[in-house]
Each structure stands twice: as C-alpha cells, then as structure tokens.
Amino acid sequence: MEILLSAPRGFCAGVVRAIDIVELAIERYGAPVYVRHEIVHNRYVVDSLHAKGAEFVEDLDDVPDGATLIFSAHGVAPDVASQAQSRGLRVIDATCPLVTKVHLESIKYAKDGYSIVVIGHAGHPEVVGTMGQSPDRSYLISTIEAVAQLQIPDPERVVALTQTTLSVEDTEGIIAALLARFPAMIARADICYATTNRQLAAKELNEKIDLMLVIGAQNSSNCNRLREVAEEAGIPAHLIDNSSFIKSEWLEGAERIGITSGASTPETLVEEVIDFLKPSKVTTMEYIKEDVVFVLPKQLRGQGGKWARQREGDGTIR
C-alpha cells in the first residue's frame, strides 16, 4: 500500500489564529475563558482546548458576568456582539479575517441599496453571522434550483456573497444561474484561499488513487467538500474523525490511498491514520505552498501564538 498525501492540507491561517487566541487568552486572563460555539469544527481541537480551560457555549446566558468571551472563527451577527457588550464581557474576536471581509461587504452593499444574496448552507454558524449583518436585505440560497424562486426588489442592484468554505464548482453553478436571472448582479469571490487550495490539491490525486480518506469532523463544511471532490471523480471517499473510523472493507484492493484533511484538522490526526495503515511508502503531492499568517487581535498582540510559529514546509501545522 502506498499513501499519497495531499498538500496543502490541515490547518489554515484562520484556524491557527483562532486556536492561538484561545490558548493566549487562557494564559493572559486565566481559566476559564468562554467560547461561543466550537472555536473551529473539530472535536479533537475543542476537547484539547477544553482541557486547558476553555468552556464552549451556544448561548451568552451561559457566560458569567465579568468573564472573557471569545467569538469563534465562524463569526457572529451584530446582535450577539451587542449583547456581549451590554453584559460588560471582555470580548476577543477570533472571527477569521476572510469571514470578516464578507461581513464588511454585506454592510457596504446594503448601505448602497443592494439586495444581498448569500450562497451557503442554512444553519451553518458562518452563514448565520453573515445573514445577520444585513438581515433586512439578505436572501439565502443553497442550490441552483432555489434561484428560480428568488424574489429581489430591484434586479439591477444585487450582489452575491458566499460562505467561505463551499465547493468551488457548486458555487460557480449557483452564481451562473443567478447571473442568468440578474445579469447586473455583482458576484464577489469569497471562497477562501485555503478551501480552494485544499480542493484543487485533492483533485490532483484523483487520477492516481483507489481510495480517498478525508480526515476531519463530520460537521465541517470544508471537510465534506473535500470528500465530495473525490466522489464526483468516481473515487470512493470517506470522511473520518480519526483512525478508529476506518473500516477494513474500504481498504480491500486499494493499492494507492489518498489522504487529505480539512482546514480545522490538526496534523497529528493525519499522522495517526498513517501509523494505523502502515503503508510501504508515503509520498507528498504538493499543489501549492501556503505562507498566509493573520495578525492576532490587539488584546493579545506581542504574545506570539505557538501554532503560528510551527508551520511546516508542506503548509501543514503540527
């Protein structure tokens, strides 16, 4: 058995920043610190941070007065930020800067009188946060079929924004359908560099492998998109949290196994899967190098997060 490792894979700059924020906040302000929603969608990461003193909540009512509150990398709607401010909580925003960019686009275009079409998955925390920026002017679209039902007040003033972790191909199809209905629409390129790079790198493996294993959480949007990339090419693909999810029947006849991981997956889980499979050979297939780093929030600058210092040559974070 040979393993072909997709590169880049694993942690992106936004995830590195978010995890560093939680760890540095615990160091500076002491445990516990409270995090609204999972800081990133990976149970291994969440459990590791919980063991260090992070408490994860969905409702701000569960955060004590005077506590330190961190917004997750997915971002929040303005009403959540306002509620935290009115409570007098010490707030640290770990929203990925690329998600913040989408939020600012929504606010800008809404002020200019545009309708905001948000392409994304209903209920995903990033989408909830983006819709909340301009709730009276935002319309959620998840499929090409839904485009025909969309009613826009002024077809000449429409902008399309996207969830940052979507499938590149699926999004292109929805945007094409929207442009067919609203030719004057402005389409923003909001899918993040890491999502795009990981999908394109995974595609490079499709003609070389018999099986694809995507390592990451079941509720991770970008991990699910990586699995779909292989499936759409006719490659058997499975999204697994760790090596304990692997079934022996998947491996029958699989001489070359592709492995990738989502933007919220630590490299240690990839290494665990490789150790479990015991391949005769491991080859890294590099698509592109990544060297993106995002600055920390002002409250934590100068401390230097350990994860941001541990970027490996293949673009992963160990």
The rounded Rg comes to 20 Å
Largest sheet: 5 strands, parallel
* Helical segment count: 10
Order of strands, widest sheet:
11-10-12-1-13
Count of beta strands: 13
**Separation, N- and C-terminal Cα atoms:** 24 Å
The sequence of SSEs as H and E is EHEHEEHEHEHEEHEHEHEHEHE
Helix percent band: 25-40%
What is the overall shape?
Answer: flat
Provide the domain count. 3
CATH level-3 fold name of the largest domain: Cobalt-precorrin-4 Transmethylase, domain 1
* Name of the CATH superfamily of the largest domain: 4-hydroxy-3-methylbut-2-enyl diphosphate reductase, catalytic domain
Mean pLDDT: 94
CATH class descriptor name of the largest domain? Alpha Beta
- Which stretches of 5+ consecutive residues score pLDDT under 50? 309-318
Q: Pairing-aware structural class of the strands and helices? A: alpha/beta
CATH architecture of the largest domain: 3-Layer(aba) Sandwich
Tell me the strand percentage band.
15-25%
Structure summarized in a few sentences:
35% of the residues lie in helices and 19% in strands.
Can you tell me about this structure?
- This protein is an alpha/beta fold and 318 residues long.
- It folds into three domains: 2-11 and 193-291, Cobalt-precorrin-4 Transmethylase, domain 1, CATH 3.40.1010; 13-96, 3-Layer(aba) Sandwich (Rossmann fold), CATH 3.40.50; 98-187, Cobalt-precorrin-4 Transmethylase, domain 1.
- The chain contains ten helices and 13 strands.
- The chain has helices at 13-29, 43-52, 78-86, 97-111, 125-131, 168-181, 193-205, 221-232, 248-251, 267-277; strands at 2-7, 33-36, 54-57, 68-71, 90-93, 115-119, 138-141, 158-162, 186-187, 211-215, 237-240, 256-261, 281-286.
- α4 (97-111) packs parallel to α5 (125-131) and α7 (193-205) packs parallel to α8 (221-232).
- The chain starts with a strand and ends in a 32-residue tail after the last strand.
